[in-house]
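Homework help board

Subject: predicted structure for assignment chain

Our instructor gave us this sequence and asked us to write out the predicted structure in token form, then describe one feature. I got the tokens but I'm not sure how to describe them. Can anyone check?
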Amino acid sequence: MPQSQTRRDLLKLSAAATLAIGATAMTAQDQPATKKRRPLKKAYFGLPKAPTLLEQCRILKDAGFDGLQLNTPGPDIAALSAALKETGLQMEGTCCSQHWRLTLSDPDPSIRAKGLEALMQSIRDCKQLGGTSVLLVPGVVNEKVSYADCYQRSQEEIRKAIPLATELGVKIAIENVWNNFHLSPLEAARYVDEFESPAVGWYFDIGNVINYGFPEQWIRTLGRRILKIHVKEFDTKKADAQGKRAGFGTNLLEGSNKWEAIMKALDEVGYTNAENWATIEMPGGDAERMKALSRQLDQILEK
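My token output:
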């Protein structure tokens, strides 16, 4: 073979290799980096459909959940403890199921006293089950209860539960709900701060707030006051067309929540670490439904 032809072939091969390397580098540079799933623990509020408590817990575990949150009074505590132990699920926390009926803002002192006892029992149940917080709706503003009275009465009753919560190491987590109360993140932060106790914080419900605010803004204002979060979807277009509560009738990732902005805000306030929980509060169902919810939560945690 002539020497000149050999050199030409070598030059062609060298040029082709250079172009290939450059193209590979550009392709890698243009490709967005794969986001790593944030290490929050995953929980579900409630129980899936199954004949027994043990089977319900197994469904959650198999679906990829780390724990669950339940209303108290609820399932038998001994049976639930046994099911948690056998499946390896953790108790994220409890919810005081009486807080809408026996409100801490009621004009009747006897009703408030019963509501306080329900809260304290939920704290005891939470401790017994290994949970770390009790979700509490602090009060309700209506025609009979003014905003100012709800603020003052609910704080007064919650202060009575702080010694027990502190003793047992269980947090009282105030939730933002549609109770005509805590309509501003600035007031919500102030409300918690006035207790001057690490035993009281916020249970931030992402879907509940979108009707009158922006979750990412609330998160940045509440900051380290956020103890737990509820992951819930809300569709503002559906709410406008069919009524406000219809907004909840949508799947995760298909509503109006801007999940990337929400997760970025949670990153900024230091919530997205392995010690924190992300708890789904959406309609459940059978094993396949729970697996679908678990996958959707994983997608959100990668945003």
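Reply (TA_rk): Your tokens look well-formed. For the description, you could write something like this. Residues 1-8, 10-31 have pLDDT under 50 and may be disordered. That's the kind of observation they're looking for.
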